[in-house]
């Protein structure tokens, strides 16, 4: 489309754009600081309490009690804080112009710390996104911004939450924008999302939070048909994503069918996890970042690890636990990568890394953010291959997602 | 949006998706090979002839003759090959379902080699995109694919052309997709574009082409308000992009006003460049990648280099020369970065790198591809900062582009 304009209007246009940029940089920086500080409080609280509980070998025996308290807190004080946070935020953006009950912020924080510290299998990004979005919504309400602006603030808050949890500012910011409308990146919120993401990442780093950064010593070997293997792995990770999504749905439906109060379900959920941890291993409990780090450094795990982690996570999120789903997805993706590498005799570290981002892409429908994350965490050499596996996983897993409130703005994935 | 499906339909759905993925991987790989081979031929021919002409100190004295021959060739054999190639391809996708005259391929190749080898200031990506798109269109015609499929093939061809010219497979593939519809990444062509991009990059690498890869030894210093400086630089690079776009328009209009044949204009254009090169320096002629590489390694240039390069490029592309616009944009962006760094006493290499991707983002309206390119060329540490400068430059330069055929599918950039 050709643009026609007069000389005087260019100055006016530029001034408007400049003021717009300046205004949104300031707002976004403010949101970034708010979210950075609160994410740090959450992450520190999570770190301390996990350290405390893990002094005891059988800390997870208290899981039923932890789930019970978490579900009681949520039921009593802020029912929006239930389940994994990100989907609730997506729903709020689409249906309520981003309006979020501020009570969600402290409740989600405490409920998630309780859940994860005692061994619930959940992630830390959901609460951060929800806390970020909640604070941004509060900020918009206090200063009486319009509905459209509030929506933008909340998207910034989500991006800021993701960036400061992952430690991958570009992928985090794009993730926040990409999960909202699959197939349609919102260019209009790119700037505030990036600024909020960078600033909150700055703040958490200054306050002492550290992140996974594990560049692979990877040199693709053209003679070994590496690209072909990556393509096949993409199909496998797509099927894993599909199984994961269905597994989450299964436990949600199961929980819905059981005719009991939330608190009783929480006790049942906690008790089931205790039994499963005693039978298999406590490694499936909690965030599981140790396992993720170990696999991307090339260490192996039980071949069925990715399947068991799905069960642990499904029970946690549908039976009283509170928390996000991305850290479990990292675990599932990287251990699925180990399985794939072992079956075909490939390099474990490489396919654990590709699995991590590909299952993320398929399960949350975020091929661009996941591709960028692969470069941010694993370095630029693996990036192009990981990107192809991410896109294939995105397509093969079909029009489903772990976030049921996502809006699909594309008809065909291929 | 919640998805409901029956057990049997999942299998059917997955089979369809799998066949779709497989089919498009094969098509895209084929296009990637075709484009990779022809890009290599073009790049080698360009390399050899440039090496040949540059043996002589005053090789550029033949510029009027080179422009004349280039414009004669285009006028006689394929008038679609005129100007910088990418815009013609964008137009073909939007208006003619990607139909491209196959004569464009050889004509564009020869005309661009003539233009650049004798000192015309133009880029190598436009011809590659046009050659890639032309071959893909021919392929679709021979095998009688539908209009929709042809469009997809042509987009793959563009992406493959970019990937194999830049040597940045992810950014190249996304660039091809992003420039077509500003504000709306086409998720449905992501897979074929990536595969075609990767494969053509593979092929050119195997055939001996090498690329700019210049990781910066960059550690952000939080105490120096680095983010703030990056934000200010983004505004500056946005204004540079705007000046560049207007400069291209100016020379295009000027050429339109002159009442003479294309061939006379070519002689005038070539002669003007000879005079300018003798007055200033021959460094503004040709691709100028030496200057780009030197600046991102921290070397300085004349402060007005970015402005002069705009003039050289404007004359080349509107007065008989053939070629792309991106390599000049790299030159303009990186030397504008040197200017900015010198004025504010900052690190030259860092701001040359940020300038390179930010002016690219503003001038071609590709904030995502440019951000990714910053990581692919300069490493993950500079990435987040470069991304912010890219987005600001994208906004500040307003709803204009060096590609007038781009379709803007967003109303507001902020």
UniProtKB/TrEMBL annotation, chains A, B:
Cellular compartment(s): Membrane
Swiss-Prot/TrEMBL keywords: Membrane, Transmembrane, Transmembrane helix
Protein name: Voltage-gated chloride channel
Any one Pfam family match given in the protein's UniProt record, by short name: Voltage_CLC
Membrane-spanning ranges: 24-46, 58-74, 170-187, 194-214, 226-245, 266-287, 307-332, 339-362, 382-403
Species: Methanooceanicella nereidis
Native organism taxonomy: Archaea, Methanobacteriati, Methanobacteriota, Stenosarchaea group, Methanomicrobia
Recorded GO CC terms: membrane
GO molecular function: chloride transmembrane transporter activity
Origin superkingdom: Archaea
InterPro entries xrefs: Cl-channel_core, ClC, ClC-type_chloride_channel
SUPFAM superfamilies: Clc chloride channel
Membrane topology value: Multi-pass membrane protein
Coiled coil (UniProt feature): none
């Amino acid at each position: 489309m050709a643009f026609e304009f007069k000389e005087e209007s260019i100055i006016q246009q530029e001034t408007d754009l400049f003021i717009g940029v300046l205004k949104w940089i300031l707002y976004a920086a403010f949101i970034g600081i708010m979210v950075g500080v609160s994410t740090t409080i959450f992450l520190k609280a999570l770190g301390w309490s996990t350290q405390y509980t893990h002094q005891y070998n059988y800390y997870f025996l208290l899981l039923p009690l932890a789930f019970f308290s978490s579900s009681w807190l949520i039921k009593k004080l802020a029912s929006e804080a239930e389940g994994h946070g990100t989907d609730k935020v997506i729903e709020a953006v689409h249906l309520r112009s981003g309006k979020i009950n501020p009570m969600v912020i402290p409740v989600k924080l405490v409920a998630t710390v309780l859940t994860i510290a005692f061994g619930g299998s959940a992630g830390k990004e959901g609460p951060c996104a929800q806390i970020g979005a909640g604070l941004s919504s509060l900020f918009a309400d206090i200063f009486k911004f319009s509905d459209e602006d509030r929506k933008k603030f909340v998207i910034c808050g989500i991006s800021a939450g993701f960036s400061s949890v992952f430690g991958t500012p570009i992928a985090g910011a794009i993730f926040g924008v990409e999960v909202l409308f699959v197939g349609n990146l919102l260019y209009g919120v790119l700037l505030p999302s990036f600024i909020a993401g960078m600033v909150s990442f700055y703040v958490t780093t200054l306050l002492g939070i550290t992140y996974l950064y594990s560049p692979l010593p990877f040199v693709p070997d053209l003679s070994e048909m590496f690209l072909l293997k990556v393509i096949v792995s993409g199909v496998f990770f797509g099927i894993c994503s599909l199984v994961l999504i269905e597994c989450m749905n299964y436990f949600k439906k199961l929980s819905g069918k059981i005719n009991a109060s939330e608190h009783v379900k929480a006790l049942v959920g906690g008790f089931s996890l205790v039994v499963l941890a005693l039978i298999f291993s406590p490694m499936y409990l909690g965030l599981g970042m140790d396992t993720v780090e170990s696999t991307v450094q090339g260490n192996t795990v039980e071949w069925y690890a990715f399947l068991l982690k799905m069960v642990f996570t499904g029970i946690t999120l549908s039976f009283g636990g509170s928390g996000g789903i991305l850290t479990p997805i990292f675990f599932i993706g990287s251990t699925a990568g180990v399985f794939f590498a072992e079956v075909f005799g490939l390099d474990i570290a490489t396919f654990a890394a590709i699995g991590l981002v590909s299952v993320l892409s398929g399960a949350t429908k975020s091929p661009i953010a996941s591709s960028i994350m692969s470069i941010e965490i694993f370095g630029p050499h693996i990036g192009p291959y990981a990107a192809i596996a991410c896109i294939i996983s995105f397509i093969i897993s079909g029009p489903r997602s772990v976030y049921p409130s996502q809006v699909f703005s594309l008809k065909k994935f291929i």
